[in-house]
Design brief:
The protein is α/β, with parallel strands linked by helices. The chain has 15 helices and 18 strands.
Length: 463
């Protein structure tokens, strides 16, 4: 199967490129600049359900990406019925007729199977005397852009381009569906990384140190229970009582919450193990056994005290996962970008739906998403572990399309991890798309993440 030299790509570019617009616009966003000649034309073919995606989101993205190349990008005004052959063929034929003197190309990755089949047939038979049409498809399995052979009966294999190095930013991915960051760019720095590593060790070892930590996390301080998923009576209830009607998305929320939480300082750490206190002291200096978060708060920081409480109540595992992802990226030389935590985008058509992905990183344009849960039993919290994994699969694919891969980091035992991974993988029908890392993977999580990403890459090469 011959890989195309990037310097020989001009032969594979169309003068008039047709793009089928489906629900996943990422393949078109990635490939369009590779498939159209400078000074050429890109025409998007939409259905009633995808015309908004094409016109409002993909169009401006491509115009910006192709700026300076003299390429005209537009949405064809005739909409096709994605289930009817006659409608698809008519729309494609009429679109081709707009530029009868140009060599045509069709990228048919997205859209329905019927759209791909019938559009492919129409373009294949379009005006042979103007040059053989260029037909292409981007594989979600190996990130290769394949070009149809001129003679399928020759026995040769398709030419292809490896697209793995083509980058799309997280903001760009969100923008392809009208999404944007809810509260500014997500956090890229790890909070208390050394202490998170120590907590991972304690969680794996068990015994008195773990019991001391759990008693601290779930215990009472100043008469108020720490916020946790098991207990809806969280610290934030102080704010609700003090400021009725103040929503969590109100800009004043964090500052008000900080003020309320500051009244419950300092935090008594005497119940924690000596080892954990010693590590924590290297990141948050405190005297003897009491941590004053107000005094430790960095100058200019916003939400520091609330971040600490959330970290205690479970988000430490998310920060540990981000820490390990960064290590895996460095050790594996993957060149990942946009590695961040607590991704909360908003979309214009889903304003009232909470949308969150715990951790992610992007390699080229392939998203690796992570969901994290501190439950130790698969049915704990009404099956919360399973629910979080399947939510992460859905959210990662909404952002990163079919190319996205998902891992679940939890404290489950090996047997539960294997069962959960098998169930999820059967639904997606590709094992490498899903990984479940449990308590037995925790200490070497960075190596397990690195090996998983390498597995994804190797399976792609043999696909």
């Amino acid at each position: 199967m011959p890989e195309i030299d990037i310097n020989d790509l001009e032969h594979y570019k169309a003068e008039h490129l047709l793009l089928l617009i489906g629900g996943n616009t990422l393949p078109n966003a990635v490939t369009a600049s590779r498939l159209v000649k400078a000074g050429g034309v890109v025409t998007m073919l939409c259905t009633e359900g995808t015309k908004e995606i094409g016109a409002d989101y993909l169009l401006p993205y491509l115009e910006q990406k192709l700026a300076g190349q003299g390429v005209r990008v537009g949405v064809f005004q005739e909409l096709m019925d994605e289930s009817r052959q006659s409608s698809i063929c008519t729309v494609v034929s009429n679109a081709l007729a707009l530029h009868p003197g140009k060599r045509a190309g069709l990228h048919y990755t997205t859209g329905t199977k019927a759209m791909a089949v019938h559009a492919h047939r129409v373009v294949s038979n379009w005006a042979p005397n103007k040059g053989k049409p260029l037909l292409s498809y981007l594989s979600a399995r190996n990130l290769r852009l394949y070009f149809d052979m001129e003679d399928p009966s020759s026995g040769n294999e398709e030419d292809y381009i490896d697209m793995q190095a083509d980058q799309v930013s997280l903001a760009g991915m969100l923008g392809l569906h009208g999404g944007k960051f809810k509260n500014g760019r997500p956090q890229e720095t790890v909070f208390l990384p050394k202490t998170a590593v120590e907590l991972a060790r304690i969680s794996k070892a068990g015994g008195p140190q773990l019991h001391a930590w759990l008693d601290f996390k779930d215990g009472r301080y100043a008469g108020q229970r720490f916020k946790s998923e098991k207990n809806s009576k969280g610290i934030a209830d102080h704010l609700k009582a003090a400021k009725p009607g103040l929503r969590s998305d109100d800009p004043r929320y964090l500052s008000e919450l900080e003020a309320n939480l500051a009244a419950y300082q300092p935090v008594d750490l005497s119940g924690l193990s000596v080892d954990l206190r010693d590590v924590l002291r290297t990141e948050l200096p405190f005297n003897v056994n009491h941590l004053d978060l107000v005094a430790s708060k960095p100058v200019g920081s916003v939400g520091f005290i609330n971040t600490f409480y959330e970290w205690i109540c479970g988000k430490w595992l998310e920060h540990y996962t981000l820490h390990c992802l960064k290590q895996a990226n460095k050790n594996g030389g993957f060149g990942m970008h946009d590695m961040c935590i607590n991704i909360e985008p908003t979309y214009p058509n889903f304003k009232d739906i909470k949308f969150e992905l715990d951790v992610l990183g992007i390699r080229g344009y392939q998203l690796f998403g992570f969901s994290c849960a501190i439950e130790r039993e698969i049915n704990e919290g009404e099956g919360r572990a399973k629910w979080k994994l399947f939510e992460a699969i859905m959210r990662a694919r909404q952002i990163g399309g079919d190319e996205a891969r998902v891992a679940f980091v939890c404290l489950l035992r090996r047997a539960d991890c294997l069962n959960l991974e098998k169930e999820a993988s059967n639904i997606l029908s590709e094992k490498s798309k899903i990984r479940v890392f449990g308590i037995d993977h925790l200490l070497g999580l960075h190596d397990h993440i690195k090996n998983w990403i390498k597995t994804v890459e190797e399976e792609g090469k043999t696909a």
